Amino acid sequence: MAWRKKKDSRPTVEALCAEHRNEESHTRYVASLALQIFDAVRAPFNLHRRDRLILETAARLHDIGYASAPGNHIVEGIGIVQKAGLRGFTDAQRNEIIAIMALHAPLPDTELAGRLANNTSHPSHIFQLGAILRVADAIDHSHLQNSKILDIRIRDGMVHLRISAPKGSGNPERAMAKSDLWQRVFALGLVIEPVWRGVTVRPRNAEPARRAIRRLLLAHYHVLRTSVRRAARTDDEKALHDLRIAVRFMRRILEAFQRPLRKTSAESCADQLRSLAKKISPARDADVWVSLLSRPRYASALVDASEFLDRQRIEQQRARVELRAILNDTATTTLLTQLGVLLRTELAGTAEKRGRPFGPVARRQVRALWKAMLEKKAWAESRKPNSLHSFRIRLRRLRILATLVAPVLSTDRTWFIETLREMERNLGRIHDLDVALMRAASVQAPPALISAFARRRRKEMKRFRALWAQFNRSSLLKRCKAVFQKPLTAEP
Fold first, then answer.
1. How many angstroms separate the CA atoms of 305 and 316, rounded?
2. Which DSSP category does 344 fall into?
3. Strand order across the beta sheet in which 158-166 lies
4. SS3 of 450, please?
5. Half-sphere exposure of 53 (CA within 13 A, CB side)
6. Which of the residues 174, 251, 288, 474 has the least number of beta carbons within 10 Å of its own beta carbon?
7. Arithmetic mean of pLDDT, 300-320
8. Which fold has domain 357-492?
9. β-strand partners of 165
């Protein structure tokens, strides 16, 4: 009787990724980047040819545990691969793969990574392959596959890695930060040389709606995560500003595209973002208040009020302390985790499938917000602070959505967005002055300061009336309406 080889029942890499809802777009791209780096440095660093497949597999699987345990995905992923095994790989090779996987995190668990590496036959090579994976993973830190390696050269005793990346993506900076292991395990240091490009994300008219929405959300998600970390540690006004903008933009996307995002956690994420926005408002209001008091036009009203100014700065610092507590709270951590799951698990698989094109969906939403704004013209023509502020909110929603989906609007989109922005800024200044007047009365500010605020508000109101009258001319209203009624004739 002929002897038959026992069938290997262990899963393939593809089967394991499918079973655990792996973010294929990211991990496949990281694998391709890692192999580019490996091929460029294999000879000078004396890496083995067999290491190429080991590195590629570790890159494919480095986030395999994210869907199951986003907060501890490295340990979870190691457990998945250890338990299931890998078809086509020996146990020794599997141990090498999981040791490399353990090294990809921003701050690797050196005890775990070291123990796993030392359990292999070539620990030094494992650390080198892990160093390559860390850098490759960071080049796609945005998870948007929008950065690429232009070339890799060795000169002046260093490896120079030139990366093309959009401004604001954070990918080159992250790659430099995650080159820490490289600097320790390779004889030649690594230099990241960014070549900056323009816009991070440009949604396309014909791409599936979910894919475009996911890309838009991802771009602002990474700004949100970074600004939360920065603002939670220090009094960083730019971080607070970036945080507020990211929260605002993500809310607008989630709220505008509820239908394409149904049967996901998008609604829950939008509710949590709304809650976070309310919590961080006091710190923003305190910053605006102190900034107003510091402006030269109000200096004469505060010449003899140094104690008053000192008290307001103390209140500002108190608001910032409360903000840091909010950003370090478990509710904020939970929000970031849930957003990560939405983008990297729930939408990652379905976003690539064919569906309704994004352009018509986006233009319909812009049209709906346009109508909603015009329905409240009476608010714009009121002098009541609450009415003006409510109108500003509607105006801002329209402007933000138009900005996000600008590439699928007509060629007049820049003029349209800037027209809305000018009125929004004017209403914003009026709102800040209204808040300042209420605050000034409550903290017993000098009467001269209250009078100065009132005079400035009258000037800003006069300016807004002129802008609003110009905007309501029939010719301009028709021009605005055409922005979201005319579909593009070609892809941007």
1. 17
2. I
3. 148-155, 158-166, 189-197
4. helix
5. 9
6. 474
7. 88
8. CHAD domain (1.40.20)
9. 196
Report d(CA 326, CA 331) in Å as an integer: 8
| pLDDT one-digit tens code per residue, 34-83 | 999 999 999 999 999 999 999 999 999 999 999 999 989 999 999 999 99
pLDDT in tens, 248-281: 999 999 999 999 999 999 999 999 999 999 999 9
DSSP 153: E
The β-bridge partners of 151 are 162
List the single range of 97-101, 167-171, 322-326 with lowest mean pLDDT: 167-171
Q: What is the DSSP letter of 357?
A: B
* pLDDT confidence of residue 488: 47
Q: Coil, strand, or helix at residue 50?
A: coil
Residue length of the chain: 492
The class that CATH gives domain 13-197 is mainly alpha
Query: In the chain, what are the domain boundaries?
Result: 13-197, 357-492
3-state DSSP assignment of residue 462: helix
Question: Is a pLDDT exceeding 50 seen at residue 414?
Answer: yes
Residue 149: name the closest of 124, 132, 127 by CA.
Answer: 132
Mean pLDDT of the chain: 92
Residue 196: CB atoms within 10 A of its CB come to 12
How far is 448 from 434, CA to CA, in rounded Å? Answer: 16
